[in-house]
Amino acid sequence: MIVTVTLNPSVDISYEVEKFQQGGIFRARESQQTAGGKGLNVTRVLKQLDVPVIATGFLGGKNGEFIQEQLEREKVASSFIEIKETTRSCIAILEKETQTEVLGPGPWVKEEEIKGFLEGYSELVKKAELICISGSLPRGVPQDFYRDLVKIAGDSHCRVLLDSSGAPLAEGVKGTPYLLKPNLEEMESLLGKGTGKKENLEEGLRDLIKTGIQVVCLSMGGDGALIMGREEFFRVEVPAIKAENPVGSGDAMLAGWAYGLLKGYNLEKASVFATACGISNALEKKTGRINPHQLEEISGQVKIVPLNRGRKRK
Ligand SMILES: Nc1ncnc2c1ncn2[C@@H]1O[C@H](COP(=O)(O)OP(=O)(O)OP(=O)(O)O)[C@@H](O)[C@H]1O
Ligand SMILES: [Mg+2]
Q: Rounded to two decimals, what is the model's pTM?
């Protein structure tokens, strides 16, 4: 079983308008409300891959109820901790070519609620084979919280896949997760913190591996990914596609990694599968969805280019 952690989910509201302008008033052509959050995207893709998965995190107020109902409708098993404050909303204004987003800051989570989450999480970890931790932290939750979650999982010999940004990612890294999946921006901000290694990604990847992390998958959108393992270092080349909506491709990729690791794939096979999931998401209109029937065909178009050049790393 895989456990996904979404501490700061959201009700994602989108409005389609002809032309958006600052300071104006607009009537939307179409409007949609969905249960959002990076960890929920991962959960949905895992569900599509037919893997037993349970989603956890914080939910509160009417927005929390909405998300819970959506998950039930999608038959996603969940074990969220109820909080007093309301789960956030995120608003996207969609024009033909551009998208403007306003992300809610998230509720304040109280100390007892955090304690309640940790109790539930510790129990889930005992039954889990893998944990996927994704996204931002709501207010009140300490910045080093992911580090604690990674350590709790590690104590139960449970592998953690971490996909976050900023301080929660930098702190989470200190817990030594099994796999990291930063995108270029997240990686640069992670390395930029006093290391002076912004220009040297290979060196940065190696430094992360030296801390005990087993796999770093640096995803680069349409430019594929760089993967470093304990011994391996390679580039994943992706075919040129007509992307419908690449938002959530990283989340689909993380789900693909979790699937591959669960099935015991080697690093190359898992990389190809995870990449195919990312590409499939980019081909779909809906965020955090793939077409499972396409994965084999897409995988055949993904190429692994070794970068080790026979050199053994120190
Ligand atoms: N336009 C694209 N063409 C081909 N493959 C893509 C494209 N966009 C994404 N992918 C695939 O999905 C993977 C993850 O995408 P990306 O690097 O954009 O993740 P991300 O920035 O974390 O996205 P998000 O956080 O929105 O989920 C890429 O490594 C690639 O394999
Ligand atoms: Mg991402």
A: 0.95
